[in-house]
Amino acid sequence: MNDLDAYRRQLVPPINIDESIVARGNSCSENDSAHGLSVEMIEHLKLLATAVCCADDSVVITTANLEFPGPAIVFVNKAFTRMTGYGPTEAIGRTPRILQGEKTDRTILERMKLDLKDGGVFYGQTINYRKDGSEFVNEWHIEPIYNITIANR
Ligand SMILES: Cc1cc2nc3c(=O)[nH]c(=O)nc-3n(C[C@H](O)[C@H](O)[C@H](O)COP(=O)(O)O)c2cc1C
């Protein structure tokens, strides 16, 4: 099982973070609470998912694997699609390297790896490429997400 499959297995199907949450609004179905989450928790998750989906800033969530084959994209929001031209079905399961090209600065990417391996936050920018091949300056703020058990320790 690869990283992406492992991530998908952790998701409770009805709260998959995708646009269906936004489309369904904030009401909970019996199906949601059948998965052992309280109605309040489901409402809260839907609220957060809606906010992330509709944020003006591009949001990308990847698996944590920094070694080859590297992180795989598990979520992109609408702003990511506006910025890059890649929709969710085109981006999810692929590596963020799809955005790289000739002018992408490898030294920044190496620093990103080192900072993230140290468990730190990474800020940086370099040239990336949209789906149509045009260049843009991509500025990142990347933060590791730990599972709730670790974060609460
Ligand atoms: C959360 C996250 C987001 C990333 N987003 C981008 C991105 O938008 N553009 C990019 O060029 N690389 C991005 N990367 C970096 C690549 O996925 C990869 O880690 C980087 O190229 C270094 O790995 P490599 O030496 O195997 O290429 C991201 C990495 C992570 C962990």
Molecular structure report:
The protein is globular and about 50 Å long. Strands 1-2 form a two-stranded antiparallel ribbon. It has a two-stranded antiparallel ribbon with strand order 3-4. The protein contains 8 helices and 4 strands. It is an alpha+beta fold and 153 residues long. The protein has helices spanning 3-10, 19-24, 30-33, 39-54, 78-84, 88-91, 106-117, 148-151; strands at 60-62, 73-76, 122-129, 135-142. The protein binds flavin mononucleotide.
SSE string, helix = H, strand = E?
A: HHHHEEHHHEEH
- The value of Rg in angstroms is 17 Å
Overall average pLDDT = 82
The percent of residues in helical segments reads 25-40%
Overall form: globular
Oligomer: single chain
Bound molecules: flavin mononucleotide
Task: Please report the distance between the alpha carbons of the first and last residues.
Answer: 28 Å
Give the helix tally: 8
Question: Could you give the count of β-strands?
Answer: 4
Unreliable residue runs = 12-16, 19-26, 149-153
Largest sheet: 2 strands, antiparallel
Please state how the strands of the largest beta sheet are arranged side by side: 1-2
Helix/strand structural class: alpha+beta
Give the DSSP E fraction (strand runs of 2 or more residues).
15-25%
Organism: Limnospira indica PCC 8005
Keywords: Chromophore, Flavoprotein, FMN
InterPro entries: PAS (IPR000014), PAS-like_dom_sf (IPR035965)
Protein name: PAS domain-containing protein
